[in-house]
Design brief:
The protein is mainly α. About 80% of the residues lie in helices and about 0% in strands. The chain contains 17 helices and no strands.
């Protein structure tokens, strides 16, 4: 009689670490492209004669779609596996960036950069991150931390590179090169991804029940306000620095500093969670974000902006890295892709509010300090929401989520 296959074969195995590698480079490309938008804000805006508010709305379109489509792409990945979904994202990313290099009208810019690239990020990020969570049990925290650190590494590399390339060859040629490179890397990531060896009972996952819990609501609200601070920063920190007299490359370098420092938050703070408690370290990240935005509001020199970028990066990196870990710890891995998709729509809501609001204030006052104030107020509200989370709330949330919905 044939032996029964061990359903846990492959979990926490070398094969699982290939999934981490794929997720790392998926996040590297997706968010490297997304977060270098501030580098293109002025040159692309000047080419189209667009205001700061209009260009900020292009970025908001990209980010909103990337997160509001995430529940759909997460659900698709849960049902058909992440490989096909990420592969589709690779083709969308390449097509969107290559088309952006050729457009000559704002509506087409909204479509090529906002819609196509936004949909590509949705296809890549949540499916690959959810796959990491499914392939690990013992080392899930560190595996997710490494995978999500791809965001920081992508930010570190893409923004300064985009600024230098734009200065030397123009923004259109930069988009062309980014398009081909991104598509090739993401297709490689898709090839490495596969379903986990453990078949999950997705149909038993009460996603709506989880979303109705106090834990989910508080996580969602805190991520909305945290996202307002983050995305306002990514859009306006480079123009803010240039307004103080910094060069285009120096302004873009600040985004790179955020990315580099975020690696400390993604990996270092994650490692402290078992010792000091996951939720306690998670709350600490929000305090760090608040301190950083206070530094931005007081910045009158490039050196202070570097301090702001480094502190912000640590807090932001910890929040982004630990949010999936907190969700998995509180709600389990069944239906994790779809649940994370819904949770991260908070960042889409944030991008609908933060950058356009800051852009309007800058256009009306011609003062780039307003984005710093928007970020600071948002951090205060985010901290207020996350402070209401209880250390043992995951048990209550899990029990509530298992209850049948009305």
């Amino acid at each position: 009689m044939a032996a029964t296959a061990n359903p846990n074969t492959g979990i926490d195995s070398p094969r699982a670490w290939l999934i981490v590698l794929a997720a790392f480079f998926g996040a590297f490309v997706a968010f490297g492209v997304m977060y270098c938008f501030g580098v293109f804000l002025k040159p692309v805006g000047m080419a189209f004669g667009a205001s700061h508010a209009t260009m900020s709305t292009v970025f908001s379109t990209l980010t909103v779609l990337s997160f509001f489509l995430a529940p759909l792409t997460g659900d698709l990945a849960d049902r058909i596996g992440p490989r096909n979904v990420v592969g589709a994202g690779a083709l969308l990313m390449g097509a969107g960036l290559l088309l952006t290099a050729q457009v000559h009208s704002l509506p087409m810019l909204f479509f090529s950069y906002g819609v196509c690239v936004g949909a590509a990020v949705a296809c890549v990020y949540i499916p690959s991150v959810a796959a990491v969570g499914e392939w690990f049990k013992v080392r899930r925290d560190i595996a997710l931390g490494i995978a999500i650190s791809g965001i920081g590494c992508g930010t570190l590399v893409a923004a300064p590179l985009a600024a230098r390339m734009t200065t030397e060859m123009g923004w259109r040629h930069t988009f062309e090169l980014f398009g081909w490179t991104s598509m090739v890397i993401l297709l490689g990531c898709a090839a490495l991804l596969s379903r986990p060896p453990v078949l999950r009972a997705k149909d038993t996952a009460n996603i709506w029940g989880m979303m109705r819990t106090r834990t989910f609501v508080l996580l969602y609200i805190s991520l909305v306000f945290d996202g307002i601070a983050i995305y306002t920063t990514f859009v306006f920190i480079s123009p803010f620095a240039m307004d103080l007299g910094a060069t285009h490359v120096a302004g873009a370098a600040l985004i790179g500093y955020i990315g580099a420092a975020s690696l400390v938050g993604r990996l270092g703070l994650n490692l402290l969670a078992p010792r000091f408690g996951l939720i306690n370290i998670y709350k600490t990240c929000y305090w760090i974000m608040l301190v950083s935005c206070g530094i931005w509001c007081m910045s009158h020199s490039y050196s202070m902006l570097i301090s702001f970028a480094v502190v912000l990066g640590v807090g932001y990196g910890g929040i982004v890295a630990m949010s999936p870990v907190v969700a998995a710890a509180r709600f389990g891995i069944e239906g994790l892709g779809e649940l994370l998709g819904f949770l991260f729509t908070a960042f889409g809501v944030a991008c609908l509010i933060g950058p356009p609001l800051a852009g309007v204030l800058v256009d009306r006052t011609h003062d780039f300090r307003w984005p710093a104030f928007v970020a600071l107020i948002s951090c205060v509200l985010a901290l207020g929401a996350v402070q209401m989370l209880r250390a043992n709330e995951g048990v209550t949330a899990a029990i509530e989520a298992e209850a049948p919905s009305d």
